[in-house]
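Feature request, filed as a ticket because there's no other form

It would be nice if the structure record came with a short human-readable summary line next to the tokens. Right now we just get the raw output. Example of a typical job, pasted below so the devs can see what we mean:
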Amino acid sequence: MTGNRRVRVLRLPDALPELIQTERVSPPEGLTVACYTFPHYHRSAFNDRLYAPGWTEYALMRGCRPWFPGHHQPRTPLWGEMDERDPATWEQYIDLALASGISVFIFDWYWYGGEPVLHEALEEGFLRARGRERMRFAVMWTNHPWYRWFPTAGWPAPAGDRLATFGTAGQGAREFLYPAPEKPEEIWRSFAYLISRYLHDPAYWRLEDQPVVVLWEVPRLVKTFGVSGTRTLLDELRAFARKLGHRGIHFHASQASRPAFSQLEALGIDSYGLYNPIVLAAAERPPEEELPDYGVVAADVVTRLWPALERLSTRPFFPTVSPGWDNSPRCFPPSVRPSRPDRNQWPGTTIVINESPAAFAALVTAALAFLNQRPTVPPVLIVGCWNEWTEGHYLLPDTYHGYGMARALARALGLIEHTHSRPGTKEDGEP
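Raw output as currently delivered:
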């Protein structure tokens, strides 16, 4: 409210005609649709050590309960709990991805304790799947610390660690286990492994004939090497790749602060974007909005977030779209809901509600319009994420939306015709 005048809130999909010329939107020529994947839904030596033999993050998803009336939890896979270490899983995934318009899987890729971890989904699953040559892939060097992905009631959060607290103070915390690769020699070892292991594959994703390596958190590199040192590191990695027969490396920044995005030219980064724009835009909504609405947040992504981030750098900005956000399976629910709404107090984490295939399709359509208005930018659209069940952003079919999110993407890309079924329901059926 401004004085006596109510500020109108834009909400997708209804507001889409106000934001773009919808009758003129079509995918740009040569469009690549890439999709992040999170490799925590298969048995791994890493989780066998940390949790229990056979543990996967399905356990968190399965055990979540609604925090409020209408809360979409627990989320249940329509196909059941797929083992992503099994090549047959990826054969099924590839069929759905291609039908939805996705041509690249970007695998989150981790290095802890001097070795790769959680890589079995890529190594034993995707790379051994029959017909996987139909799909391209890339890796994201994911340099964040590792915590136990469940809250421990009563376990105190480490001092000064804002990422470790769940809900209100003292109610639960993630337990810190491994630091991100931060020593120069460990960073070099991890990149050398990644470059020599994957980039030669004929199906590896390339832009302008350069293999694409996504960087998760650029500020951590800058913390270790400084700006000029990070530029030197990336140039040395490109030189290493050239020795192996590549034309270099296209480095894409996926997660950074606004100041870090403004340094991309100095750092030698080739392009940038986001892992999930919905959670970032939702976090910028007024704190009295306890449960931000997906349609409102998606409109914010189009009108505020993308333009603001694009202004930070002259490097190509690739728009990212996401079907939602709700990381409550990883969180400890606050025991008290204050009478005065404050999202920081309750729910104490970001939960975006009312996600729907119709609103997601509108966000994808807006991203296509964004790319069409920038013909000098490589036509790349990124989706976050394929399978991040415990953060509430996934395209895989569930028992709530059915195939709705995958179909919404395909519909926005013009791969299937619009139907007369109610948007956002299981009537959307199977691609």
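Something like this underneath would help us a lot:
Confidence is low (pLDDT under 50) at residues 162-172, 420-431.
The two ends are 43 Å apart (CA to CA).
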